[in-house]
Design goal:
The chain has 465 residues and is an alpha+beta fold. Helices cover 35% and strands 20% of the residues. The chain is built from 16 helices and 18 strands. Strand 17 and strand 18 form a beta hairpin. The structure holds flavin-adenine dinucleotide. Flavin-adenine dinucleotide binds next to strand 3, helix 5 and strand 10.
């Protein structure tokens, strides 16, 4: 069998513990975290160095083996799950998980691609620096995966997404050649910026093995509040008002709709609810600055009062701040426990977001009377998680997915928005990419893929159908 020859050669490159072939061992790596896609793989390799990755990639090239790069397997769109052919090698970066060094003078950190996001944050904090990328999966997602989907999260408003936080990359190409772009430069105009092609490429162009990431001074004060707002337009006015007063000290501004509070209350009984009765809309605001917590909290309270906010919960210490964030971060899990919903990760220009919300919901209800929209997310980035529940919350709910998607994504397109703000395309949205980004844009993307991966072996079935 050709696969036996390949596996025998693989065993000459890596230690036995770094290769998995038993179907039971492979199973968790072949299932996506939403349990929507279940694939099969020939084997899983977990190399320990860039040189080992390169050797494995050369071998795969010689044997025509497709490669599925995998980090923490937290993708929301099946991006790291192999197809059902059983021909692919999963290349996991989990053994390359070191934080290689913090350069406090350059304000950078160099990491291996398998480093877990929370470990990177912690190492930087220990060096009195902030690596600001943060989201609910920080404890399990890995830097390579976050780069490969250009993840965003909770602090994009002030610090930008992974693209904006990256200075350099090292990448192993499908041929096994190593591209060393691991530069720590803030200015480098030397032709095409190749690293930007790998960021957001979802493992379809090569394997990211190391990265240099930007750091910031570590803020010493935090203040957070959850505030009731009359609606999304008022929330946006509040955000702009706060920014006028305290500029980019506003690090997060999250919009939360009533159904989110209801779901968290139902599935997390121990979590205290901030308001009674539950408001239609609220925002979670965080400020960060230098100095003491107390004066920053006082300033936030003052600003909320000046803005005419009638009901707000102000966190008085770190644990109260964490409690407020807990309410926000348990929304995805509460939805998962509730059952199947049709999920959308959309963005529109921030100024259009209130109007989008006004228009889109009624269009869905006009066709699906039992639909309930659960909307929440990063208002300051114009990015909402816009999920639609039906009365049937079993897998049967997926039967209307295409029709619901068409309503939502057509509406997003009308407002000049994106059908994938931060989660990527994976295998979930390949047809949608072709529909809304067809023509020259898709042709150029296919051309780039052809340059880097002419044999089409990198993460087949992702991005392109
Ligand atoms: C609870 C939860 C909350 C989340 N919140 C957010 C959020 O707020 N914002 C946001 O943007 N995302 C969010 N996500 C999704 C987000 O995509 C992931 O958390 C994360 O960025 C992906 O990292 P990962 O290591 O799990 O990648 P994986 O899921 O393993 O892989 C993702 C993609 O990257 C590719 N890949 C992985 N490693 C490499 C590599 N080294 N080289 C090349 N390609 C590679 C894979 O092939 C795949 O295409 C959330 C997910 C969960 C489960």
């Amino acid at each position: 069998m050709p696969s036996d020859v390949f596996l025998a050669a693989l065993r000459t490159l890596l230690a036995p513990a770094d290769i998995l072939t038993d179907p039971d061992d492979l199973a968790p790596y072949c299932l996506d975290q939403r349990r929507r896609y279940r694939g099969q793989a020939l084997a899983l390799a977990r190399p320990r160095s860039t040189e080992e990755v390169a050797a494995v990639m050369r071998l795969c090239d010689a044997h025509g083996i497709p490669v599925v790069p995998q980090g923490g397997n937290t993708s929301n769109c099946g991006a790291a799950t192999p197809d059902e052919s059983g021909r692919s090698l999963i290349l996991s970066l989990e053994r390359m998980n070191r934080v290689l060094g913090v350069d406090t003078a350059n304000n950078t950190v160099t990491v291996e691609a398998g480093a877990i996001l929370a470990d990177v944050q912690k190492a930087c904090r220990a060096a009195n620096r902030l690596f600001p990328a943060d989201w609910g999966a920080a404890g399990s997602c890995r830097i390579g995966g976050a780069l490969a989907v250009n993840a965003g999260g909770l602090n994009v408003l002030r610090y930008g997404n992974m693209r904006e936080l990256t200075l350099g990359l090292e990448v192993v190409l499908p041929s096994g050649e190593i591209w060393n772009g691991l530069r720590a430069l803030r200015k480098d105009n030397t032709g095409y910026d190749l690293k930007q092609l790998f960021i957001g490429s979802e493992g379809t162009l090569g394997i990211i093995t190391r990265a240099v990431l930007r750091l910031f001074p570590l803020p010493t004060a935090r203040a957070a509040a959850m505030a009731v707002v009359p609606g999304p337009a008022a929330a946006l006015t509040l955000l702009r008002g706060l920014q006028t007063e305290v500029g980019d000290r506003v690090t997060s501004f999250e919009l939360i709709g009533r159904p989110c509070f209801d779901l968290v209350a139902k599935h997390f009984l121990a979590l205290a609810q901030p308001f009674s009765p539950t408001p239609e809309w609220a925002v979670l605001i965080e400020l960060a600055d230098y100095g003491e917590n107390g004066p920053l909290s006082d300033r936030l309270l003052e600003l909320l009062a000046e803005a005419g906010v009638e009901d707000a919960v102000l966190a008085r210490n770190e644990s109260e701040i964490d409690m407020l964030w807990c309410l926000r971060e348990e929304i995805p899990e509460a939805q998962r426990r509730e059952g199947v919903s049709i999920k959308h990760d959309i963005s529109v220009p921030v100024s259009s977001l209130p109007q989008f919300l006004e228009v889109c919901g009624p269009r869905i209800s006009a066709v699906f009377a039992d639909a309930q929209v659960v909307a929440f997310g990063h208002l300051g980035d114009g990015n909402l998680h816009y999920n639609v529940f039906r009365s049937d919350k079993s897998a049967q709910a997926y039967s209307d997915e295409a029709a619901i998607n068409a309503i939502v994504y057509d509406c997003v397109a009308e407002f000049g928005g994106s059908f994938s703000a931060e989660h990527g395309i994976g295998q979930l949205k390949t047809a949608i990419l072709a529909h809304y980004r067809g023509g020259a844009e898709l042709t150029l993307m296919r051309g780039i893929k052809q340059v880097f991966d002419p044999k089409g072996r990198m993460n087949p079935g992702k991005l392109f159908a």
